[in-house]
Amino acid sequence: MQMVRSCSRLTVDGPRRDPPRGGTTMTLDMVRRGDRVRILHIDDPQVRFQAIRFGIGEGADVRCAEKLPAGPIVLRRGRQEIAIGRNIARSIRVEAI
Questions:
Q1: What is the pLDDT of residues 55-82, one digit of tens each?
Q2: Pairing, β 92-96 against β 36-42
């Protein structure tokens, strides 16, 4: 076990970064587990249509429930979870809330 001091926090197993500040824009593939974000724009019309069917269209507030290494990003909204592949996540603009 390695103890590291980073961002004024002492953590086990490596550094922990501070969560993004409200208003910070990024793509969905850049979020970390636990981050809360608002969907701003979905580039691909087919992806936008599928996202709306799952209730996570533009303007929806979601939380990153899990981010698997080299795998999908799992979003949670209410009691619903949806896994989004990294390539699709790169085309979704979000804002930290």
A1: 888 999 999 999 999 899 999 999 999 9
A2: antiparallel
User: Does 57 fall in a domain?
Assistant: yes
The residues facing 52 across adjacent strands are none
Domain ranges, residue 59: 20-96
- pTM for this entry: 0.73
On whether residue 36 sits in a domain, the answer given is yes
- For residue 61, the 8-state DSSP code is E
The rounded distance, in Å, linking the Cα atoms of 53 and 47 is 10
Please give the single-letter amino acid code of residue 71: G
Residue 88 is encoded by which pair of tokens? 């699709």
Cα(70)–Cα(77) distance, rounded to whole angstroms? 22
